[in-house]
Design brief:
Elements lengths: L1 E3 L4 E5 L4 E5 L10 H7 L4 E5 L18 H14 L5 E6 L1 H12 L4 E7 L10 H4 L1 H22 L5 H10 L4 H10 L7 H8 L6 E6 L3 H13 L3 E6 L6 H4 L1 H16 L4
Parallel strand pairs: 3-4, 3-5, 5-6, 6-7, 7-8
Antiparallel strand pairs: 1-2, 2-4
Helix pairs in contact: 1-11, 2-3, 5-6, 5-7, 8-9
Length: 264
């Protein structure tokens, strides 16, 4: 089942317990195709395009891109699937939103999947550290120039071309708002630790071995969450679910089958 609510593109596939995955900055629901195939037949998967991205709406005002707005959209995506409770998670930006969601609505979360969790700006690493400069480049120079500088570089490789293709379907103004209002304000795991200590859902935390900023943040999250499983996947960078889909899917299904929905 696929469709658009009033303004949010949501896709729901499969049957069984619900698993929602939210994509990263500059991505879309399409980024989870390998995971949808792995989940089909055993779980009901929910993916959606975040506001300001791809097929979803892109409000004009910066005030429409606060963390609370993204948390509300995650709740709307669950409503679109008719899910009262679910495993919620995502990649990078989506993982940050998922963690905010469970802090706001713990009663609706059966498990957490936090992949390539974004490092806070205070570390000087990751997208949050250069979010203001990236946003300014989007405003002043547009998608092509800003994207080449901050995302895919000057390489003519096939991977770079695929990243560019996905990135270019977004509106530069909307992405600039996301950078300033959401990503630049990502709190650190240490700052969140007092709140995280009270969370009861089991959590799967995944990072690619080559993604040093996310590895460090993921280790801090694993230490702060009471029921965390940490998986560092060799041969992967930030987009761990696409760079090593077999290893990522194996970790995801093992977590779901053994810790969230164990079979008797």
């Amino acid at each position: 089942m696929a469709g658009v609510g009033p303004d949010l593109h949501v896709e729901v596939t499969g049957s069984g317990p619900c698993v929602l995955l939210a994509h990263g900055f500059g991505g879309s629901a399409r980024n989870f195709r390998p995971q949808l195939k792995a989940l089909r037949g055993r779980y009901r998967a929910i993916v959606y395009d975040a506001r300001g991205h791809a097929r979803s709406f892109a409000p004009e005002a910066a005030s429409e891109y606060t963390p609370d707005c993204f948390v509300s959209d995650m709740e709307r995506a669950l409503g679109r699937a008719g899910a009262e409770r679910a495993v919620v998670g995502g990649l990078s930006m989506g993982a940050g939103v998922a963690l905010r969601f469970v802090l706001a609505h713990p009663e609706r979360v059966q498990g957490l999947v936090l992949a390539s969790f974004p490092a806070p700006a205070s570390t000087g690493q990751g997208i949050a550290s250069h979010a203001p400069a990236f946003a300014r480049a989007l405003d002043e120079e547009g998608l092509e120039v800003a994207g080449a500088r901050f995302v895919w570089g000057e390489s003519p490789s096939r991977d770079a071309a695929l990243v560019r293709q996905g990135f270019m379907e977004h509106q530069p103004r909307a992405l600039a708002h996301v950078l300033r209002e959401l990503l630049a304000k990502q709190p650190s795991a240490e700052d969140l630790a007092p709140q995280l200590a009270g969370l009861r859902p089991p959590a799967l935390i995944v990072a690619g071995e080559a993604d040093a900023p996310s590895v460090a943040t993921s280790r801090a999250l694993a230490a702060a969450l009471p029921r965390a499983r940490l998986e560092i996947i060799p041969g992967a960078g930030h987009v761990v679910n696409l760079q090593q889909p077999a290893a990522f899917n194996a970790a995801l299904l093992s977590f779901l089958d053994e810790e969230v929905f164990p079979r008797s």
